[in-house]
Amino acid sequence: MAEELETAQIPPHIMAAMRERMKMAQRMSRIKHKIVVMSGKGGTGKSTVATNLACVLAESGKTGIVDADVTGPDIAKMMGVEDAQVKATDTGLEPTTGPAGVRVISMAQMIDRDTAVVWRGPLKIKALKQMLSDVEWGDLDYLVIDLPPGTSDEPLSVAQEIPDADGAVVVTTPQEVSLLDVRKSIAFAKAVKMDILGVIENMSGFVCPHCGKQTDIFKIGGGEAAAKELGLPFLGRVPIDPRIVIGGDAGTPFVLEHPDSEATKAFREIVQVLRPRLKETKPRPTGPLAK
Question: Rounded distance, CA 75 to CA 33, Å?
Fold first, then answer.
């Protein structure tokens, strides 16, 4: 009787928030590893890295990817599921199955491609929470969360809603100026108590497919130097390959289309370095959402 009286005294909006948080926690508890992919600024190829990492991870376990960029979602196109409709069920939303069996959810699947999402922070955060808590992820080994560039609403919301995330992978470019952006990402991670799993240097060198000569178009080594200076693990560097752009536009992840390329080898080596840095997993719970 006392418990019923206490429950009755809780305002409805607080009770609803508590239920939503419990549902989020139970959904996320079904996922062994949550890997956040972030960058201090745009233009680093972060979404390209996220999609290809997800496809490599899918070779060793069930994998999903969340496009946490609510206003500029690109993951659905890169995974070839831009035109797939998200289905609603009695228990939530059903993610789309993309290449390599990766489960995908993105705002791009819920709105017209020419529609601009003109939302303030609270609406963006609400949409992101729904993509995490209302989606029937089921039992996953890996969930890759592709954040928008910067350190504001969406990254902060992910950090707060998934406190048990394994950590963040910071994607940067080879220029020495990248150190400035990596510093911002690190400062953000420390502020929200999120571990940094390591730094990936993207667009690092270009090997000519005709003569085999390497040209450092954007220099090389800036990301590695930044990781060393800041005491962070360096996960590896991914070279430029024009076919990566072609695959992203066509919705065919590069690592699946060109398994023997230098860039694909780099992604595989990065995953090998990354995997031991992930947290030990706890036994999955059972319950009504454990499908």
Answer: 19
**287 within a domain of the structure (yes/no):** no
Please name the amino acid found at residue 36: V
Query: What is the DSSP-derived secondary structure letter of residue 39?
Result: -
Burial 101-132 (b: 16+ CB within 10 A, else e): ebbbbbbbbbeeeeeebeeeeeebbebbbbbb
What would the mean pLDDT of 58-67 be, rounded to a whole number? 95
Q: For residues 155 and 187, what is the distance between their CA atoms, to the nearest angstrom?
A: 13
Q: Give the list of residues 6+ apart from residue 39 with CB closer than 8 angstroms, or none.
A: 46, 147, 149, 170, 171, 172, 181, 185
Q: Which of 6-15, 20-29, 36-45, 129-138 has the lowest mean pLDDT?
A: 6-15
**Do 76 and 103 meet the contact criterion of CB atoms below 8 Å apart?**
no
Number of independent structural domains in the chain: 1
Highest mean pLDDT among 1-10, 11-20, 159-168: 159-168
CATH at 142: 3.40.50.300
pLDDT of residue 273: 96
DSSP structure string for 223-244: HHHHHHHHT--EEEEEEE-HHH
200: amino acid identity, one letter: I
Counting every residue written for the chain, the total comes to 291
Residue type for position 220: I
In a domain, 88, yes or no: yes
3-state secondary structure of 290: coil
Record the tokens describing residue 249, joined without a space: 């536009």
The SS3 assignment for 54 reads helix
CA distance 63 to 243: 24
